[in-house]
Amino acid sequence: MRILLVDDEVELVSTLAERLELRGMDADWQETAAGAIEAAGKQSYAIAVLDVKLPGASGLELRVRLEQMQPEMKFIFVTGHGCEEAFEQGREAAGCEYYLVKPVSIELLVSKIEDVLGKKAR
Amino acid sequence: MADSRSSPAKAGLVFFGTVSAAVSHEMRNALAALNENAGLLGDFVLASAKGRPVDPARVETVNGRVARFVSRADALLTSFSRLAHSTDQDHQVVDLRDIADDVVTLCGRLILACGREVQVAAQPGGTVNTSPFFARLLLWRCLEAALADEGQQAPLVIAVARSAGVAQIRISSGGDEDLWQRRGIPGELELELCALALSTIAVDRRSGEMTITWDSRNG
Hints:
The complex is a heterodimer.
Chain A: E1 2-6, H1 10-22, E2 26-30, H2 33-42, E3 47-51, H3 59-69, E4 74-79, H4 84-94, E5 99-101, H5 106-117
Parallel strand pairs in A: 1-2, 1-3, 3-4, 4-5
Helix pairs in contact in A: 2-3
Chain B: H1 8-49, H2 56-84, E1 92-95, H3 96-106, H4 108-113, E2 118-122, E3 127-130, H5 132-147, E4 156-163, E5 166-171, H6 179-183, H7 188-196, E6 200-203, E7 210-215
Parallel strand pairs in B: 2-4
Antiparallel strand pairs in B: 1-3, 4-5, 5-7, 6-7
Helix pairs in contact in B: 1-2, 1-5, 2-3, 3-5, 5-7
């Protein structure tokens, strides 16, 4: 059961992948929407953790593409937009339960991944 | 409803809000990266306590990442602080390179979102007497217009130069000869901003660059 992480901050997303691996999860990362689509064409993912703002395409747009490719895939969004209004608008637009504001603690992210996947992440 | 950018005051408020939101977003990214890398060091300590050796090279890598994010956040906040203080006085003697660097640094995420690269090329000695705030706003208006032009790939170059009693900021058109005319720059607002910034603005017919000019003898 693999996790796909997508964020244009390479040194953030690669570190996050390493930390999830240390917790027994299999995680791949990509820095662009195009890279994520290419990865999803080669590998099945149970869940994708997407940055809302990506160069060239939003995380919400990327979700649509990934869902078309892998309908069973689940999604968590993370964002750098900190205000309450943007948070609520984002959560509604994302249509998902988990829409997290950076910085996100690893414990919180792991618990959300486990919630979404029904404790089957590891 | 009136266009929120129709007067220098309204355009200034929009600019300050736009920049503040971009800086806030960037700082959250920096905090998130610092959070993850500090957390990874904690993970190494936990692993070590369980008897697994920690590779010093991995710790050094994390240390390097932390230093880079601190440096990036420092540059961002330096530019943001200069913007915040740019309204302290109506006019100040400033280096045009600082203005160009600040606009590119503060609007880095907005530039990235457009998929374009912006380069600053500056000669030394480009100090002028200007309104630091309205000079930044004027440069951003020109840059924003150029970036909004879809389909262009060439890097945009902001050149700061000084010669024969004038100092200039020149913004390339990325090889698009009709860019400024198509985008309506300079319009009425840009001419008002020029007056406030003690400068003039015109398209260089030979190079196609948008050229903002100051009398450097006052600088």
